[in-house]
Hints:
By secondary structure, the protein is α+β, with helices and mostly antiparallel strands.
Amino acid sequence: MKLRIVHRTIYRYADLVTQNTNEVRLKPLSAAPQNCDWFELNLTPRARCSSYVDFYFNYVQRFEIPEPHRELVIESVSTVTTGEPNLPSEADSAPMTRLSECHRLEKCHDFIQPTAFIPLTPEVWRLAIDASEAQTGIWQTARSMAAFVHCNFKYSPNSTTINTPLADILLRKEGVCQDFAHLMLAMCRSLKIPARYVSGYIYNGAAEKLLGAQASHAWCEVFVPEIGWCGLDPTNNQPADQRYVKLAVGRDYSDVAPIKGYYRGTPDRELKVELEICELSPTHNFGPSESKDVAVKSIL
């Protein structure tokens, strides 16, 4: 599947601001079965970008706008080719008894630890035990926890912020995709399953089918021996297939925030986000093209 993604973020400030410094993680990853064929970042006001690859191999761009301005527009445009991931079969997966092997791997170490967003409390451990339904396989256990979050927590847009504590999510039993990803990560890590946070997008097709497809999305990946990192989306209770486009991975949201920064000036501002995802013909190369189907066009 070949997709074209336009993600536009617009900040409008109540007064002039200066020293606007940001880092963005908006370039899709190139790691099988996904490849970023083409990417550009457009900034208004214009600014020079530097770039680097962070500790988790995410592509990061950094820029600063020192002169006074009242508006900042950050637009990323990318073309991505995705394929079907290699996932464990439902009947045959590495058993939970092999988790000790995972814990000895450097690439898994950070993803069994608690973080500020993902506290490993007795309450979360109890939920994980209840949700795992006595499963013996790593993948099957993770699938059970994704299903538990999906069935017991209500998807409610704008009901939380990224700073809403996990304890509040457990109490209110509602939230958005970031909350559900954090909850599932906490449950997995409570059982010592290596699990990491993923930010990205879902291609939704012509009809409104998938929750969270109107904006940047979040899901989880769990590590399964012999296969590697396998994606699960607790918001929609399904594996991450070729419709999912991965931007960045990390321990939690703080590692993968698409845009974060600071500036000098008024705290009063308006934020608008526009996202368009469309499917391209398989022969499309670069630049503008007629799309087969506009999937998402929303203003948040």
